[in-house]
Amino acid sequence: MAIAKGYAAATASAPLTPFTFDRREPNDDDVVIAIKHCGVCHSDLHMVDNGWGQSVYPIVPGHEITGVVTAVGSKVSRFKEGDRVGVGCFVDSCTTCAARDLDREQYMPGLILTYSGFEPGSDLPTYGGYSDHMVVKEGYVLSIPDSLPLDAAAPLLCAGITLYSPLRHWNAGPGKTVAILGLGGLGHMGVKLAHALGAEVTVLSQTLSKQEDGLKMGADHYYATSDPKTFETLAGTFDLLICTVSAALDWGAYLNLLKVDGTMVLVGAPEEPATLNAFALIPGRRTLAGSMIGSIKETQEMLDFCGEHGIVADIETIAIDQINEAYARMQKSDVRYRFVIDMSTL
Ligand code: NAP
Ligand code: ZN
């Protein structure tokens, strides 16, 4: 066991405080990573609060991790000491079924989350990226393109892939109208990626306060959802609408903005259930779908795409002792557009 330093919440809704814990010894197929930066995802807030009922305490959050390799096991072939790497939302998955070949291992049983899971075959909890180092199987480590800085690239490991995957799956590209609902961490990555893929992009935000930023990120249009006229003007407009909102909404109102055969994809994961009138779907043969992060293969493809197009997150760097304040600001949608922890402040 190696001693690691990090920040943890001891119980549901407790503040994050300094925490020392054990990391497992590296195996032959493991990579040891000195963590340099970690993004702060809204899922970290849901998980610290046990909002989805699956949290394991003490909880060390963080699944938008970038760092540098400090050691590799004897069977590791793709990485060496000094490489710039990333780790996203999971660190292991089912290897006995053909999941990896299907390139959708994130949907298979056996997925082991980066934090609040358990190390395979053990009762040692997995602890996330708000820490100084981690030990990860080679197959779950991503390569960060040289052109991307490690701080602003960190949010690509969750926010980036969570938007890239549905944009690709539902064929966002030239000739397609795409709406991104919510301009937070996920949403702002969605705007940049959908624009780079060639789609016509509309932001739907609560107000127009971030309009200038949204247009600079690549949006073609920007509307406030607090204005009832928005729902009249945009009725029947979109091929694809991706909802990144962390709170429960009237999804029916947004389904009505889809064209016939359009799809609304939920990536935002509110803690409360929502009700839905069937007539929000029936008259337009519309689809309501969900999507969760992306496979390892797709995550590497997204990182390479971002490397080629110079896409990173817009970040506000914080010291680790500012994390509780950052959570409070995120709850109020007061973030432009991702907090990233500088782990040298640990
Ligand atoms: P975030 O940075 O806090 O952004 C969420 C945005 O939603 C806010 O910036 C705000 O945008 C809008 N919003 C928040 N509360 C709202 C409300 N009451 N009514 C209307 N709009 C509201 O959060 P995030 O990190 O992007 O994560 C968003 C959600 O995605 C979370 O639920 C998170 O757990 C989930 N998530 C899912 C996956 C997945 O694989 N599916 C992966 C990562 C995260 P405006 O200010 O522009 O209105
Ligand atoms: Zn996340």
Structure characterization notes:
With 346 residues, the chain is an alpha/beta fold. It folds into two domains: 2-158 and 314-345, Medium-chain alcohol dehydrogenases, catalytic domain (Quinone Oxidoreductase, Chain A, domain 1, Alpha-Beta Complex); 160-290, Rossmann fold (3-Layer(aba) Sandwich), CATH 3.40.50. The chain is 23% helix and 27% strand. The protein contains ten helices and 17 strands. The chain has helices at 42-48, 99-102, 150-153, 159-169, 185-196, 211-217, 229-233, 251-255, 296-309, 323-331; strands at 2-8, 17-23, 30-39, 65-72, 84-87, 90-92, 112-113, 133-137, 142-143, 177-181, 200-205, 221-224, 238-243, 258-266, 287-290, 315-319, 338-342. The strands form four sheets. Strands 3, 4, 5, 8, 9, 16 and 17 form a seven-stranded mixed β-sheet that branches. Helix 10 links the parallel strand 16 (315-319) and strand 17. Helix 4 crosses helix 5 (185-196) and helix 4 packs across helix 9 (296-309). The longest helix has 14 residues, at 296-309. NADP nicotinamide-adenine-dinucleotide phosphate binds next to helix 1 and helix 5.
